[in-house]
């Protein structure tokens, strides 16, 4: 999988240095050619499979667009690097920018772009900038759905380990908030223990191994990320524990999906927070430039994936 991510990153970086035609086949029946636009895409460097899939889906969507413009895609590792790339896109003449600003410090440069007349569509991240559009999943509802799923599988009593990720800011905060609030309503007798980890399988393995040592009985795990959950499942296997009946996740990892039918003793779940949502962000940018009426915020509803429906979400071309 790491080799595949490396290949994808090379493709993305190469595409970031060249212009590629964009367009929408749905417009082929129009009597005149659509206006040509310049669109920039700013994504973080690949540190996580989900992030790699965001860049992959953004690139794929632009390849599907054949007659509406040109695009440049850049990846960056810091807010400073993304700011420099934002300036480069404006110098290039970008009319719209789809941005995935994962770091603090992007508010001012994005506001400057907006004030200069550039349309900005943020993917996933909400920041304080006037006039920015946004496409996102429903982080709080992911927590709501996770609580409902666990109670459905294990009942209203037991112990749930909550794995939050403070470094993920509002993403983790909203997911935990939705989970805790819902659990209090539908299973007030359920006990919870909360531990901090990160959105990586390595941290999921290391941290959950410690959690298992500290807790003799855990009935379910509320994990917010598929990569973390892969590490959790490995820790459970290595410890030989049989008490855990549910492990949740979030994102849309193909490797995690394929694990779902392999263990009949554990319900493996993912609240789909699909990286393919970035396609909607690219479409939104084009719609704004083409003068269409667009809602400022588009929230993609949560979809639950488990062993009963995982085959519907398999994509052999996905890097995640």
Report on this structure:
The chain has helices at residues 2-15, 49-64, 79-92, 107-115, 139-154, 170-186, 201-214, 226-239, 254-259, 278-289, and strands spanning 20-22, 37-44, 69-76, 96-99, 119-123, 133-137, 159-164, 191-196, 220-223, 246-247, 250-251, 267-268, 270-272, 297-300, 303-305. Helix 1 crosses helix 2 (49-64). Helix content is 41%, strand content 20%. The chain starts with a helix and ends in a 15-residue tail after the last strand. Helix 4 (107-115) links the parallel strand 4 (96-99) and strand 5 (119-123). A 7-stranded mixed beta sheet has the order 1-3-2-4-5-6-14, sandwiched between helices. By secondary structure, it is of the alpha/beta class. It has 2 domains: 2-131 and 275-300, Rossmann fold, CATH 3.40.50; 139-272, Rossmann fold, CATH 3.40.50.2300.
Number of contiguous helices: 10
CATH superfamily of the largest domain: Response regulator
CATH architectural category of the largest domain = 3-Layer(aba) Sandwich
Strand content: 15-25%
The average pLDDT is: 85
Helix content: 40-55%
Q: In which order are the strands of the major sheet placed? A: 1-3-2-4-5-6-14
In short:
With 320 residues, the protein is of the alpha/beta class. 41% of the residues lie in helices and 20% in strands.
What does the secondary structure layout of this molecule look like, with pairings?
Blueprint: H1 2-15, E1 20-22, E2 37-44, H2 49-64, E3 69-76, H3 79-92, E4 96-99, H4 107-115, E5 119-123, E6 133-137, H5 139-154, E7 159-164, H6 170-186, E8 191-196, H7 201-214, E9 220-223, H8 226-239, E10 246-247, E11 250-251, H9 254-259, E12 267-268, E13 270-272, H10 278-289, E14 297-300, E15 303-305
């Amino acid at each position: 999988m790491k080799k595949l991510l490396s290949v994808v990153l090379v493709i993305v970086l190469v595409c970031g240095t060249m212009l590629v035609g964009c367009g929408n086949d749905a417009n082929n029946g129009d009597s005149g050619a659509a206006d040509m636009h310049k669109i920039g895409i700013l994504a973080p460097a690949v540190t996580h499979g989900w992030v790699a899939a965001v860049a992959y889906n953004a690139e794929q969507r632009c390849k599907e667009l054949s007659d509406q413009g040109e695009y440049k895609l850049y990846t960056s590792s810091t807010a400073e690097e993304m700011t420099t790339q934002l300036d480069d896109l404006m110098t290039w003449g970008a009319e719209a920018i789809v941005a995935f600003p994962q770091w603090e410090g992007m508010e001012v440069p994005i506001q400057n772009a907006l004030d200069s007349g550039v349309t900005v569509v943020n993917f996933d991240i909400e920041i304080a900038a006037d006039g920015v559009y946004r496409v996102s999943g429903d982080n709080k509802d992911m927590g709501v759905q996770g609580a409902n799923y666990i109670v459905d599988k294990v009942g209203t009593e037991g112990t749930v380990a909550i794995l939050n990720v403070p470094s993920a800011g509002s993403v983790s905060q909203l997911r935990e908030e939705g989970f805790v609030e819902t659990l209090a309503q539908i299973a007030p007798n359920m006990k919870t223990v909360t531990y901090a980890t990160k959105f990586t399988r390595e941290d999921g393995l290391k941290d959950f191994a410690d959690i298992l040592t500290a807790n003799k009985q855990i009935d379910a795990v509320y994990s917010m990320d598929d990569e973390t959950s892969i590490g959790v499942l490995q820790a459970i296997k290595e410890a030989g524990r049989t008490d855990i009946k549910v492990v949740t996740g979030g994102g849309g990892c193909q490797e995690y999906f394929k694990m779902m039918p392999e263990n009949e003793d554990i319900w493996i779940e993912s609240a789909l927070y699909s990286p393919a949502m970035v396609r909607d962000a690219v479409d939104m940018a084009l719609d704004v430039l083409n003068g269409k009426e667009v809602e400022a915020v588009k929230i993609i509803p949560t979809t639950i994936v488990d062993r009963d429906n995982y085959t519907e979400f398999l994509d052999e071309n996905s890097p995640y």
